[in-house]
Amino acid sequence: MNLVLWIIQILLAAVFAGVGFAKLTQPKDKLRELMRWVDPVPPTQVKALGTVELLAALGLVLPPLTDIATVLTPLAALGLVIVMVGGILVHLRDMKTQDTAEGRRTEIQGAITCAVLLLLAAVVAWGRFGPYSF
User: Fold this and answer.
1) Which pLDDT tens digit goes with each residue over 62-88?
2) How far apart are CA 107 and CA 103, in angstroms?
3) 4-56 confidence digits (pLDDT tens)
4) Among residues 56, 82, 91, 120, which one has the fewest Cβ atoms lying within 10 Å of its Cβ?
5) What are the residues whose beta carbons fall under 8 Å from the beta carbon of 70, sequence distance 6 or more?
6) How many CB atoms lie within 10 A of CB 88?
7) Of 49, 55, 53, 47, nearest in space to 24 by CA
8) pTM
9) Sign of the CA dihedral running 44, 49, 50, 51
10) How far is CA 24 from the centre of its chain?
């Protein structure tokens, strides 16, 4: 199970590092092409979310690799659970405001993606807080 948790941690770290880095470095107009939810959100909030995601990605892998403050790993996973709850709510809200079938399908896919990432982060939080802590 420890190996499975490591695989999930690395996968989550890669996903959130990539998405967080994009939110930090790309202008809002460029992000809008892939992330329709950024349209009504102020750019500072998008950058703040990118910062949180990037820090969580680092928190998933660096503490156990360096054996420093390893409690940060399950805390980072728990933080991602909270972020993904917010992501699901945003996608469900946007689904109600879309008037095209394509818009609805995109938002459902976004909510499902957030739900899968939430589940993976919850597994890491459970495992690293509980029976497979460092």
Assistant:
1) 999 999 999 999 999 999 999 999 999
2) 6
3) 999 999 999 999 999 999 999 999 889 988 888 888 889 999 999 999 999 99
4) 82
5) 63, 64, 133, 134
6) 17
7) 47
8) 0.89
9) positive
10) 14
Site of tokens 């992330």: 35
- Please check whether residue 133 is in contact with residue 64, taking contact to mean a CB–CB distance below 8 angstroms: no
CA distance 24 to 32: 13
Rounded to an integer, what is the distance from CA 57 to the centroid of its chain? 9
Checking phi first, is residue 35 left (phi over 0); if not, alpha (psi -120 to 50) or beta? beta
Task: Report the alpha-carbon distance of residue 58 to residue 54 in Å, rounded.
Answer: 6
H helices within 69-100, ranges in order? 72-97
